[in-house]
Amino acid sequence: DMGNLNCNNFPEAKAVADFMKVSTSVKGWGLSVCKINDLGAQALADAVRVNKTFTILDLQRNEITDVGAQALADAVRVNKTLTILDLQLQRNEITDVGAQALADALRVN
Questions:
Q1: How many CA atoms lie within 13 A of 92 on its CB side?
Q2: What is the DSSP code (8-state) at residue 93?
Q3: Taken in order 67, 82, 10, 32, is the CA torsion positive or negative?
Q4: For the residues 80-93, what does the mean pLDDT come to?
């Protein structure tokens, strides 16, 4: 089961992240076009670190930069159950630096 959500700011992304930390029934989150910035990405990364049940995180078409990408990369290194991380780099604000951090993390994962 995958939850899809339309959120437009950090407080909503943080609320989703807080729920993700304790949820065991949702296997993935579709959070595309949610205007999630680096603060939201950091909150989601914190959830990725602790949630061991979901396998998909869709963050395409947001406002994530290299800072958020690095936070997500650090979380992916810890979480071995996340198998699909969809960022669509051209639809966020992630440069080669953030892309490399994510690629390195996914290699470890």
A1: 27
A2: T
A3: positive
A4: 81
Question: Could you give the CA distance from residue 8 to residue 33 in angstroms, rounded to a whole number?
Answer: 8
Q: Using an 8 Å Cβ cutoff, are 55 and 86 in contact? A: no
The rounded percent of the chain whose pLDDT value lies above 70 is 90
Report the C-alpha gap between 16 and 99 in whole angstroms.
Answer: 24
> Which tokens belong to 96?
């080669």
Q: Which two tokens stand for residue 84?
A: 């699909």
Written as six digits, the tokens of 78 are 């810890």
Q: Once rounded to an integer, what is the mean pLDDT over residues 48-76?
A: 92
* 96: Cβ contacts below 8 Å, ≥ 6 apart: none
Among positive and negative, which fits the CA dihedral 38, 89, 79, 10? Answer: positive
Asked if 33 contacts 4 with a C-beta cutoff of 8 angstroms, the reply is no
Other CB atoms within 10 A of residue 38 CB: 21
